[in-house]
Amino acid sequence: MIKDGLMPKTAIFLHETSSSIAKQAQQKWLHNKYPGYIFKSQAMVTEHGKYYDRVTIQTAADGQQLTVYFDVTQCFYEIKI
Question: What is the pLDDT, as a whole number, of residue 74?
Fold first, then answer.
């Protein structure tokens, strides 16, 4: 299965346990995959016991709006403990 982040089951898994470091990792991934992207929105969602950051962006290349999911379950559990 390709981990493109376009749906929860293909979410980009983040190993970071700090929310600030996880956010930096998300931004780096988005910058590498979609250079020049424009941030639109972000929301925390849950599905099947996992926690995801759902980030909506507009691509610089063609102006397409995309929603990208990042699995932040590990980070969320570290915050809760």
Answer: 86
Tokens of 32: 């590498």
What's the pTM?
0.89
Q: Which domains does the chain have, with CATH numbers?
A: 8-80 (2.30.30)
- In this structure, the strands spanning 50-58 and 65-71 are antiparallel
What pLDDT score was predicted for residue 28?
A: 96
Amino acid occupying residue 16? E
Phi, psi of 78 (to 5 degrees): -65, -35
Angle between helices 73-80 and 19-33 (to 10 degrees): 170
Residue 68 structure tokens? 């990208």
